[in-house]
């Protein structure tokens, strides 16, 4: 994973780059941002594709307000990006290689990350389309 510097993302809203901190400090800030338990669940739940908020809510059992706060922190840290489809908001990891880091950290501690699967009752267009394609 490459951390971005101010010159590499001129005009962006990467909070770490805008703060003009060194790459080591940027790396520490990324670890601090993803270090919360809920966020370590959110990253593998998003995976290397994209996931809607309602799907994350259902998969992780988190309340929408708390989940939104975690997603906002991940978005401001430039870890995830989002896009809106009607009333549904979808999230994607900006750098899917971050998942490898999370998995390696779990392996280092001999932990197994939970396998999260989409909830069949999610009504967003993304989940509905996936269900239709499976049938």
Keywords:
7 helices, three-stranded antiparallel β-sheet, 3 strands, mainly alpha, disordered N terminus, globular, 135 residues, Arc Repressor Mutant, subunit A
Structural topology:
Layout: H1 15-18, H2 23-34, H3 37-46, E1 50-52, H4 53-60, H5 64-76, E2 80-85, E3 88-93, H6 98-108, H7 125-134
Antiparallel strand pairs: 1-3, 2-3
What does it look like?
The structure is a single chain. The protein is mostly helical and 135 residues long. Helix content is 50%, strand content 11%. It has one domain (6-134): Winged helix-like DNA-binding domain superfamily/Winged helix DNA-binding domain (Arc Repressor Mutant, subunit A, Orthogonal Bundle). The chain has helices at residues 15-18, 23-34, 37-46, 53-60, 64-76, 98-108, 125-134, and strands at 50-52, 80-85, 88-93. The protein has a three-stranded antiparallel β-sheet with strand order 1-3-2, with helices on both faces. Strand 2 and strand 3 (88-93) form a beta hairpin.
